[in-house]
Design a protein that fits this description.
311 residues, alpha/beta, Rossmann fold, L-2-Hydroxyisocaproate Dehydrogenase, Chain A, domain 2, 22% strand, Lactate_DH/Glyco_Ohase_4_C, EC 1.1.1.37
Length: 311
């Protein structure tokens, strides 16, 4: 198996490093537009692999898409990251052209690739990559839900002073500070609803902290986070390449599911060797469905900006 990660910034390099350390593919290509960055980081990872007992081929490339030929999965992280005070939506004018161009260039050399989109605003970039490429819907997947759910599990585990590995929790909807929906009602610890352990006020705080999880880190670090986003990308790649059939909240095209159509939005899906293979119906209650519809309206409004751009 071969994986290409486009964008050798902090998120892309971390994603590639996670894939290499876990030996998810026989070759990982890291591509960037900036001279020497991808080559240098790939060489650094290769040197690290000798200390980690990893046996994998790592290749860095400065904008040479021929080196990505034959990729099974392509992770797109390219574009500008958030700065303090910026929303993910602020990035659309810059990142739309980048994501579309990357998708077109990749397909020239890897026509059968499955795409995982991390670039922000992720829901809109996933929609753009799907519509501009004409690819089958199952081969274009946005990352948001995997990352947001990891943050949700983290905050729940901190509130309950327990291992996050004992928690099942999902976030659906848009990958935005006001559009994501932590499903508190369905979250469990060891199979028991978390509401048995936490009061309503604490659960509301956990949900609120989850929704601004990315902004919190941006404020602390001065730029977008990278460890968890990179790990989330590798987590999705693993489920695809190893055909694990994991249920992972992901941004995919909806065609009537969850009451929405012609929009890419975060819902629980089965990820396997064919990309996303099935949408799982969580049977939302009225309040959750209303929040999902509101999230869809916000994302659809952002998608509408694409028509005003020259992409």
């Amino acid at each position: 198996m071969k994986v290409t990660v486009v964008g050798a910034g902090a998120v892309g390099a971390t994603c590639a490093d996670n894939i290499a350390r876990r030996e998810l593919a026989h070759e990982v290509v890291l591509l960037d537009i900036k001279e020497g960055i991808s080559e240098g980081k790939s060489l650094d990872m290769l040197q690290a692999s000798t200390l980690l007992d990893c046996d994998i081929k790592l290749t860095g490339s400065t904008n040479d898409y021929e080196k990505t030929a034959g990729s099974d999965v392509v992770v797109i992280t390219s574009g500008l990251p958030r700065k303090p005070g910026m929303t993910r939506e602020d990035l659309i004018g810059i990142n739309a052209g980048i994501v579309k161009g990357v998708t077109e260039n990749i397909l020239k050399h890897s026509p059968d690739a499955i795409f995982v989109i991390i670039s922000n605003p992720m829901d809109t970039m996933t929609y753009l990559a799907l519509k501009s490429s004409g690819l089958p819907k199952n081969r274009v997947i946005g990352l948001g839900g995997a990352l947001d759910s990891a943050r949700f599990k983290t905050y729940l585990s901190l509130a309950m002073n327990c291992s996050p590995n004992d928690i099942q929790a999902s976030v659906i909807g848009g990958h935005g500070d006001t559009t994501m929906i932590p499903l508190t009602r369905l979250a469990t610890k060891g199979g028991v609803p978390v509401s048995n352990f936490l009061d309503e006020e604490t659960l509301k705080k956990v949900a609120a902290d989850t929704m601004v999880g990315g902004a919190t880190l941006t404020g602390l670090i001065g730029t977008s986070a990278w460890y968890a986003p990179g790990a989330a990308g590798a987590y999705m790649v693993e489920s695809i390449l190893r055909d694990q059939k994991r249920v992972i909240p992901s941004c995919v095209l909806l065609e009537g599911e969850y009451g929405q159509s012609d929009i890419c939005l975060g819902v629980p899906v089965v990820l396997g060797r064919n990309g996303w293979e099935e949408i799982i119906d969580y049977k939302l209650n009225d309040e959750e469905q209303a929040a999902f519809n509101k999230s869809a309206d916000a994302v659809r409004s952002m998608n509408g900006v694409l028509s005003t751009l020259n992409v």
